[in-house]
Amino acid sequence: MAIYGECIGGLTRVPVTISALGGDGCDFQPEASDCLIDGPLDLWIGAVGPFTVTTEKNAGGRYRARFREPLDQRIIAHFTQG
């Protein structure tokens, strides 16, 4: 299930599509393929957040975000129920 969100770092706001949401992190794909998202930033999951994350780029323009604090299971359940 794709979840729409936004990464915010400094003065940059990047719309993203979030997947593989779990307690310790998630994967996401920025809408713009030429943006550079790396290091610590704030992640909004839908209208919930911000959550402080550290990101790293994976293959294919995808990113992995690791939450600073574990995500509450109720938030995960809300976005993964289908």
Helix residue percentage: under 10%
As residue ranges, the low-confidence spans are none
* Distance between the first and last residues' Cα: 8 Å
Rounded radius of gyration (Å): 12 Å
How large is the share of residues in beta strands? over 45%
Order of helices and strands: EEEEEEH
Strand order of the largest sheet: 1-2-3-6-5-4
Q: How many β-strand stretches?
A: 6
CATH architecture: Beta Barrel
What's the overall geometry? Answer: globular
Reported for the largest beta sheet, the result is: 6 strands, antiparallel, barrel
Give the CATH level 1 class. Mainly Beta
Can you tell me the number of structural domains? 1
Structural category is mainly beta
Mean pLDDT: 89
Note the main attributes of this structure.
82 residues, mainly beta, Thrombin, subunit H, 1 helix, 6 strands, globular
Report on this model:
- There is one protein chain.
- A hairpin with a 5-residue loop joins β2 and β3.
- The chain has a single domain, classed as Thrombin, subunit H, CATH 2.40.10.
- It starts with a strand and ends with a helix.
- It is mainly β.
- The chain contains one helix and six strands.
- Helix content is 10%, strand content 52%.
